[in-house]
Amino acid sequence: MKSKVNFLVLLGLLLGMAYTSDAQILDSPRDGVFDEINLPDKKPLSYYPVREADVVWRKRIWRIIDLRQKMNQPFYYPETRQKGMKNFMTVLMDALREGTITAYDATNDDQFLIPMTYQEIENKLTSTDTIPIYDPNNPDIILKYEVSQKDFDPSTVDRIKLKEDWFFDKQRSVMDVRILGICPVQTLNDEQTGNFIGFVNLFWIYFPEARPIFAKSIVFNRQNSAMNRTYDELFMNRLFSSYIYKDDNVYGRDISDYALGMDALLEAQRIKGEISEFENELWDY
Asked: Is cis: bond before 78, omega within 30 of 0?
């Protein structure tokens, strides 16, 4: 009988603690003027259907979004999670961890051929280091080695590659663009000297598959914080600055393979001008 009484008392204490914890969450003050209830139900706008017979011209282009540029900072910040806001790389990693989107190997191509598991991505992004532990009485003697793991830092991703198709739809008489893929690019620096080592393409994401996630991820709006945008809106409304590093060509080359410095910039501008030139020539009488 006594044990039953003790059990009931303990159960009552646990329920009381749970109720108190829930009450603290439910009764916490609202962090803002209103409750944001529309974001969880937000969906991306559907693409306009396009028939193959209506596409009379198409050009594939690859771009780089440099997150260090001022216009692109909404992709890079906040560096750490804030209430309701995450940087673009954190959004991608969370979606990959949950299995909502699929990552594809970026080692050899960008055709979304080889899917990657989250464990493979985590192994690729994390690094280990062996640290020797010396004898405090004799620094020449190593007592043991400890293996430390360095977690992935999203701030090391300061570039995003885009793969997109520009095409003219004669049914609507418009020049349109569809982003096909996104590839985050990590910058590698030497840990001791801090010198630049190179860039690493982490993985490719099929953009149409990721749009529902992007549509629910808000981005800070400098002009009006009451009208926060989403990552999907940034991409679909072309609210970013970028430069072309490749177009579809018979050699399959990047611009950097045959032009450097100012010549590379002029070549990128030439490719960009081809799109506007084609559209303008359609309306010459």
From this structure: yes
For the chain, what is the radius of gyration of the CA atoms? 26
How far apart, in whole angstroms, are the C-alpha atoms of residue 228 and residue 251? 43
Closest CA relative to residue 217, chosen from 30, 53, 90: 90
> Terminus-to-terminus CA distance in the chain, angstroms?
99
| Best CA proximity match to 121, nearest among 183, 168, 175 | 183
Residue 30's Cα: distance from chain center in Å? 29
204 close to 110: Cβ distance less than 8 angstroms = yes
Q: Where are the domains of the chain?
A: 57-120+153-281
Q: pLDDT per position in the chain (285 positions), as tens?
A: 555 555 555 555 555 544 444 444 445 676 666 666 666 677 898 999 999 999 999 999 999 999 999 999 999 998 888 777 899 999 999 999 999 999 999 998 899 999 999 999 998 888 766 677 777 888 787 777 776 677 888 889 999 999 999 999 999 999 999 999 999 999 888 777 878 888 999 999 999 999 999 999 989 888 877 778 899 999 999 999 999 999 999 998 999 999 999 999 999 999 999 888 887 777 655
The pTM of the full predicted model, rounded to 2 decimals, is: 0.80
Tokens matching residue 204: 């490719």
d(CA 240, CA 71): 6
Please give the helix or strand (H or E) that residue 219 lies within, else none. strand 218-219
Contact status, residue 176 vs residue 169, Cβ threshold 8 Å: yes
Q: What is the dihedral of CA 124, 116, 85, 211, to 10 degrees?
A: 150
What's phi and psi for 45, nearest 5 deg? -70, 140
What does the alpha-carbon distance between residue 211 and residue 99 come to, in Å, rounded to a whole number?
A: 14
* Long-range contacts formed by 193-199: CB under 8 A, 24+ apart: 199/159
